[in-house]
Amino acid sequence: xxxxxxxxxxxxxxxxxxxxxxxxxxxxxxxxxxxxxxxxxxxxxxxxxxxxxxxxxxxxxxxxxxxxxxxxxxxxxxxxxxxxxxxxxxxxxxxxxxxxxxxxxxxxxxxxxxxxxxxxxxxxxxxxxxxxxxxxxxxxxxxxxxxxxxxxxxxxxxxxxxxxxxxxxxxxxxxxxxxxxxxxxxxxxxxxxxxxxxxxxxxxxxxxxxxxxxxxxxxxxxxxxxxxxxxxxxxxxxxxxxxxxxxxxxxxxxxxxxxxxxxxxxxxxxxxxxxxxxxxxxxxxxxxxxxxxxxxxxxxxxxxxxxxxxxxxxxxxxxxxxxxxxxx
Length: 328
Hints:
Distance between the termini: 147 Å
Helix content: 55-70%
Region (Disordered): 1-60, 130-166
Structural class: mainly alpha
Order of helices and strands: HHHHHHHHHHHHHHHH
CATH topology: Dbl Homology Domain, Chain A
Protein name: DH domain-containing protein
GO molecular function: guanyl-nucleotide exchange factor activity
Domain DH: 96-310
Keywords: Guanine-nucleotide releasing factor
């Protein structure tokens, strides 16, 4: 009988189902579920338990390393890198700003040199009975560029005094003050201005805009006065062109009188050119004084507009251009 049962199982018949007490089955399932729940709770809530997975641990370690290194995940660009780029940008802008700053000073030096040339060698021809003399070494040293400021005058080793200049026509002598207007005032003011400008340009360039802002009223006053007189002066210079040409040759000067008379008109209009470049690079360098530079630039755009309105044809800047090209 037993052999018959084994044969039946071997041929594929299933054994009878084992009877299990239902209450026992439910109890065992509850224990299993409780155990799984306890394991999960230990994993996610126990502070000493293992992290959920290796990927999370790796990500956390990476973030910690970035924080310790001063790096942030900003599209692959770190804080150090951004700061280095910013420092390089600021340094480059400040370096490029030096050129227009130096141009501002060097052009002022050239302007003051011409103002002094007229003050010391042209104006005294009528105001003094003696002939103009070449400046002493001490005087020359005070001029912008030293001796180079008077290198267009005759060099006389045997004497510091020039021969008598051409005789000034009486009617021209009577109008000599009209010819030069407030030239001496311009010369004295710009000489002092140049001294301040030169003292700031290297060590404290961002004090320069305040010079222009504080000088607004003064600049407007002296240039308005000069431009009001300019048309009369240009007419006188044209009327006595032959005499002034003779005087130019006598002084061995490269500039003629008409050119000199145009210098203040041109100068007040040219400050804005280097200043616009300075403002551009000041902004790129994020310099705090940017607002002052912009204000100074606005002033140096505003004053030329006022003076241009004062000038009357045919002696505006444009119409006087042909006279500026006349040379021998």
